[in-house]
Write a structure and sequence with these properties.
600 residues, alpha/beta, ABC transporter transmembrane region fold, Rossmann fold, six-stranded mixed beta sheet, four-stranded antiparallel beta sheet, 10 strands, 10% strand
Amino acid sequence: MTSKQKHFILKNAKPYTLHYVLYFLLVVVMSVFSICSILSINNFLQILFSEGGGMQTSSTSALDDILNVVYNYFLSFGKQNALVYFTLLILIIYIMKDLFSWLGEYEMGCTRNKITRNIRYNMFSRFIRQDLSFFVHYKKGDLLSRISADVLEYDETVLRSIQTIINSIVVVLLYLVCLFYIDWSLTLITLILFPLVAVLTSTLSRKLKSNSKKLQAKNGELISDIEQTVAGLRIVKSLAAIDYVNDKFSKKNHTYTLLRNKVYRKIYLASPQSEVISSFVIAVILLIGSREVLSAGGLTSGMFIVYLILFILIIKPAKDASTAFYNIQKGTACMDRIMEIEDSENTIQEPSNPIAFPNMEKGIRFENVSFSYTDKQVLKGVSCMFEKGKTTAIVGSSGSGKTTMIDLIEKFYSIKEGDILFDEVSIKDILSSNIRNNIAMVGQDTILVNDTVANNISFGDTSYTLEQIKQAAQIANAEEFILRLPNGYQTNIGDRGDMLSGGQKQRISIARAVLKNAPILILDEATSALDTESERLVQDALNRLSRDKTVIMIAHRLSTVVNADKIIVLENGEIKEQGTHQELYNQKGVYYNLYKMQEI
């Protein structure tokens, strides 16, 4: 395990240090009761097989003295009563052992849940604060796998294994102390078990880590394929591509299964390894211990039975510790994938001394802005003005840079060359959150959540009253259909607003923009997918919303921008033309050709 991985474990466990200490103490108490229950077997056997009920007086150690006191006390009640009382005592000891064992397990279970909760929250928080370039490098399914499957894997492998190791170390050490006290020479033989297991564990765990990392990556690919297929199932069916998609998934699923078998083959090998070693050591103990008892040495038959039970019981925690080390190696793969997300940095450069967002008296100005996602330049020296109180449309073929300009205005990416000014304030001097608070967006793809109409309109801000929400809906021409819904504004509209039509969804989006009342309004193909009646209602709402604002339109259908105050024509990331519809049409340039093609 690397120092970075250790730091990750300690960082997440540090807030719960006291919980780990409490668990350690509970395991110690549980182990003491367990040892007491086993030592009591010696007294029980003495009472059961004693001749004539005589007192036991001889002793060879302090432990023997203590056991003799207990033995003589119970025997004073008579042999029959002593057996009954001693049985009850053993029962109470076992109950106490199980009680403290349950308390320890419950305490650590809650602690592990809190740790995974924090990790999951940190990852989600990191996701939503990343710039858009982050999501270009990761598949959606892979990100979902990391925040769900990988976090659970971390809990089941690393956190559970740490719990197991703490438990095993306490139990093994206390049992070993007891074994050494009973017969130190015989106990030395048991120590052969641990270095053998350690050597075998370290040999196989290196291969296990590598395979586990591949396994987590394959799991991410599977989830990504499932997510993409479900999202595009309509297209898959319409293209009669079900068999193709099914075969493709079947191959990946088969590869994943083979890799998973390979990983678990190594994990499950830990148990039989320790079993073989344990069986060998037990055989040696039986041979040496029985000879010592028969030779009337320091080890009595009763204590030898106790010794043998203690050693047999020490095998399981020792084996569990061995398996736990395997699992931790397996878990380092998912740990690396989690840390990769948590360590990712947002490339948006926020100002150290931010300036407040201006009152927008003039508008937005691009000054020689160039931008590229990778090596290919998307925008090349763009300079233009989006004036307050006017509607400016951006047109051009697909890939010309229209959406990129909007993304830069909303500070989804950092500008590498040039500048964008809000009035006379540079975008670099304003916090991205302040910029977005002053922008309202109405897009072609309306983002609605599985919630009520009212909560979708006020999405992201709970300070609005229901009356304000209703006023926004009225301006957006949305209240008419909202009141026809089963519960009006409190109607749940389903996942992605599936209960609503396209036009209704769009009017909810416009109501959201009305409620925000931002000085900048961005319209991204807001009416392109609507029927004639819906488009009329939406356009009427947009006209009321656009008053006294800086309005920017992205359009593919040029018929929707003919009334814009200014049209900017992009081609391959450069501004080729600017002007009104009539001016550009008369120039018979790029805009004219695009317009005529759409007429055809």
